[in-house]
Amino acid sequence: MGIPASTRAAAAPRPTARARFASGLPLLVLVVLAGCSWSPGWQRPDDPRDLVTDLADDGSLARGLAHPDAAVRRVAARALGRLPAADHVSGMLASANTEADAGVLSEMCFTLGQWRAQEAGAFLVRMAEHRDPGVRAAAVLALGKLGDDSRTPRLVAALGDDDPRVRQAAALGLFRLDGRRYDHERRATPEQLKTRDAALARAALQDPDEGVRWRAAYALSHSRERPGLVTVLGRCARDEATPLARLFALRGLASLDERGRKAALPEARRLLDDGDPRVALEAARVVATLGGFAEAHELTADASPHVRALALDALRLRALDRGEEPVESPPGTAWEGLLVTTARELGRSDDSEVVRREALALLTALAARHADGTSTASWTDDPTSLDPRAQLAAAGRAARETLLRSPDPRDRARLARLVTDDELDDRDLLEVLLDDSNPSVVAAALGSLGNLAPATLQFERERLEAALRHGDPAVRATAAEVAKPLVDDGVAPPWLVTGVARALDELELLPTEERLEMEEARAQLAAALGLPTLDPVPPAEPGRGPLLDRLVAERKAAAGDPAPEVVLETTRGDITLRLDRVGAPRHVESFLELADDGFYDGLDIHRVVPNFVVQGLDPRHDGWGTGGRRVPDEFGPTPYVTGTLGMPHAGSPHTGGCQIFITHVPTPHLDGAYTAFGQVVDGLDVVGRLEIGDVIERVRRVDGPLGGRAGDDLF
Questions:
Q1: Could you give the domains of the chain?
Q2: What is the tens place of the pLDDT at every residue in 409-438?
Q3: At what angle do helices 190-206 and 164-178 cross, to 10 degrees?
Q4: Among candidate residues 676, 653, 599, 651, the one with its CA nearest the CA of residue 473
Q5: 283-298 tens-digit pLDDT
Q6: What is the pTM of this model?
């Protein structure tokens, strides 16, 4: 289960996998389509509640839009946004045209944006001029989600709104209309684009509201390249009052063409000592990637383990991908090579497990590259030689053995990823990793089979077929990922297509608790076949009254204790979370139940992407665990800012489980796509220090509000 770091642009249209199967496997695919129903359970096997399929649409939500109580209409409008649009858009618009309550209209705007309902464009434009600023902000955000940049002038006008909430929404709306991550037709005229660029630049550099400035900088940092962008981002990088503007400007410059990257480097050097650790980290990333070798190497001595790790990662990739030769000793340095010396020292004695792991990976990959004849420099196997390449070879062998023999499966999985990423070519080692006792290691190694040509894949048939039938979700899902590009390109051998289809069908025969753990594998298998997302099916038994009545009852119950607080007692310090029971009652119920049962105590952080998120509380410790439950999506308008608590999912509806993630910085591309159900109110510095392997020793409730501080950048 995870959260994407970015959204891939859609590929060019091509025949669907289902169409290609029509001539060869019609019966099998029809069986898969007909037989793969999903009825996830909830909580314990003896608990009759099924809160996922309990959300099946029974028509009460649409009828609820006409309820005389505005509070009920708000619940109905929000809940509809968690269901497919289907036939609801026209009914929503009909109700919206006679709606007078601002709160209901805001919820309707949010839902229409979630649906990306193009036919709602005219209505949203009207709402963008509503007297209530909350409605205007919701409408502007929704317009951005429609992917129709002919609406650009309306969003540009909103950048001049009197209310900062509307201006913030306008900046993010323009990000969605122009951002590189969004693939839709661009129809704005050159003159409209020129006006938009000027308006965003003014907002980023001159708006009195800090939240508007960083959002405008964020929009600019994701924009397609155009004249003047480098200059504007360079000025944003000098906004002394807005750390997030500096961070996003720096990130944007580094993602542009050569001129942008040249501008990014001096700004990054200047910001290495920035008072905000997130800005300093982003600056270190740019220097390690774009600066000189000596500069990147110097960062391996930084006080922050996140910086040391990213510096080692950058040095490894530079040496492998760019063909740089950093193993040569600069004049006056140790004879065995500056990089080899540093990596060996960090691999032996660094305080951070993550840094040690990356140092060992660097030594292993570099030794393999220079040992396979790709380097023109000479070296010998004699470990006593003064040749730095001989020292690298010896150090690489030792590093590889350290990773391979480690009791920590994360070390062995790191070694497996070197093989999968083609940084290490060793068939014997791959066989050892594929036979590892830990499924996360096997899954990491299995990905290497995706590098094989279709003809060569025949020799791995037995292993792949076994992986598709494997009882572990990580192994089965990775096997599906290996198959997917071959199926997409129409070159998959029939036995592989058959194996994927059978594996998907077999999941329906598993007991409910096992099927819950296999949901992500199920999604990957369906994707490999080119099938549409397989949603949970309605429950076999009728619900306990109309769905709307149940949701309204939940909302009323939540009002009695709308924001319970919990403390995560970690090995780095305490983090206080204020939960949002009103916006996400079922997520909060699930989280508190697990916390009260002691389920979370002793679990760890298994994923850290600095300046993005930390993720953890997985009983498997690898991101594939669910805790035996599924929590229904409760998407809402709450934005992902610094310290927002979110629920990872498997990429298909209602697949949240027991895990959590917390954002390091605002991540607007997650808004409305992942359930946000809380906020850090104390301990943001602890969140920033968390590393992979750090333990959540205890999760406890707080009796009464702590009155914690939410942080200076939560806008």
A1: 14-49+452-534 (no CATH), 547-701 (2.40.100.10)
A2: 999 999 999 999 999 999 999 999 999 999
A3: 130
A4: 651
A5: 999 999 999 888 999 9
A6: 0.89
